Amino acid sequence: xxxxxxxxxxxxxxxxxxxxxxxxxxxxxxxxxxxxxxxxxxxxxxxxxxxxxxxxxxxxxxxxxxxxxxxxxxxxxxxxxxxxxxxxxxxxxxxxxxxxxxxxxxxxxxxxxxxxxxxxxxxxxxxxxxxxxxxxxxxxxxxxxxxxxxxxxxxxxxxxxxxxxxxxxxxxxxxxxxxxxxxxxxxxxxxxxxxxxxxxxxxxxxxxxxxxxxxxxxxxxxxxxxxxxxxxxxxxxxxxxxxxxxxxxxxxxxxxxxxxxx
Length: 262
Hints:
The protein contains nine helices and eight strands. By secondary structure, the chain is α/β, with parallel strands linked by helices. It has one domain (30-260): 3-Layer(aba) Sandwich (Rossmann fold), CATH 3.40.50.1820. The strands form two sheets. It has a six-stranded parallel sheet, with helices on both faces. Helix 2 (48-56) links the parallel strand 1 (33-37) and strand 2.
């Protein structure tokens, strides 16, 4: 009886070893690291649906909120500049010891992301501009405004105002069922980020993998120009039939594209 048990044990052990060997031949899907930077009036909260999808697949996701916005809106002040928001992004890399990162900028987020790339280039595997501005060196946010808006910005600053009022989610063509959530979360955009010229040295063009995603349902000539610039430079590009807040309205599709291009 003891001899039979040992035989069965030996067969079972062989089966376990065989299964283990088979499993070892299929390495687990490597986890990736994402830093997702929101746009004007938004905060890290807007990435919630995308973050949940990515983390459920084992990826590491950081969604910093820029100073003066979202849960950091109590810090809103006249002292916030574009440099502040660039440092917000850089500090995530520094304090989290991040490497091989896919850095994503949405809308206004293209400004601080462009500036941050100058400092975090060695730690990047890829960049994604999501319906975002693609500014060049020497440009400032104000340069992308109409003459009337520029005059309004300057007049507001002279009056001592520190922020831009919040639009409705419907303006960004957010799906009706999610507009209330977005409206409840958006906060005023710091006005001071509009006046500082961006200083770039071409680091953005040195990132190995570069992607531009255009939300084609949202009419914005500056984003059309960003898409064209990306195409002309050989970037991988996508045009999605959704509104501006892609992370809110098409989180599954966006997550898939980010993984593919990280």
